[in-house]
């Protein structure tokens, strides 16, 4: 019984914090995304992506449940970061396996509801708390 008790207290917990890095090139990250699956909070920060006149960066999620069709999670503000609870309607397991993207769009976002410009893609990886 003692061994079972020790095993249960030592067993690693399922991570709830995840990160994703959107690479600008081989050496420079463009954006850094962090997600807390418990609260469904998402935070994205601009690292080396450069603002372009008349353009906006837009954040997307693509899941198996959506058939891989990207769904907008909002625009990345001019100051370069957002923190929102935009993942509240998604199951944690769906978010964990999703592909995230950041696209360069006309000012104000995609006119079609889908990414129209170049896209950086990333997957979540577990992050220690």
Could you describe the 3D structure shown?
The protein is mainly beta and 129 residues long. The chain has helices at 2-10, 92-97, and strands at residues 17-23, 29-36, 41-46, 55-62, 71-76, 81-84, 99-106, 119-123, 125-126. The strands form 2 sheets. It has a 5-stranded antiparallel sheet, with no helix packed on it. A 4-stranded antiparallel sheet has the order 5-4-7-8.
Q: Could you tell me the mean pLDDT?
A: 86
How much is the radius of gyration in Å? 17 Å
- Written as H for each helix and E for each strand, in order along the chain, the element string is HEEEEEEHEEE
Low-pLDDT segments, ≥5 res: none
Indicate the proportion of strand residues.
Answer: 35-45%
Q: How many helices does DSSP assign?
A: 2
- Gross morphology: globular
Strand order in space, largest sheet: 6-3-2-1-9
Distance between the termini: 30 Å
Percent of residues in helices: 10-25%
Record field, number of beta strands? 9
Structural class based on helices, strands and sheet pairing: mainly beta
Largest sheet features: 5 strands, antiparallel
Short description:
The chain is mainly β and 129 residues long.
Supply database-style keywords.
129 residues; mainly beta; 4-stranded antiparallel beta sheet; 9 strands
Secondary-structure map:
Layout lengths: L1 H9 L6 E7 L5 E8 L4 E6 L8 E8 L8 E6 L4 E4 L7 H6 L1 E8 L12 E5 L1 E2 L3
Antiparallel strand pairs: 1-2, 1-9, 2-3, 3-6, 4-5, 4-7, 7-8
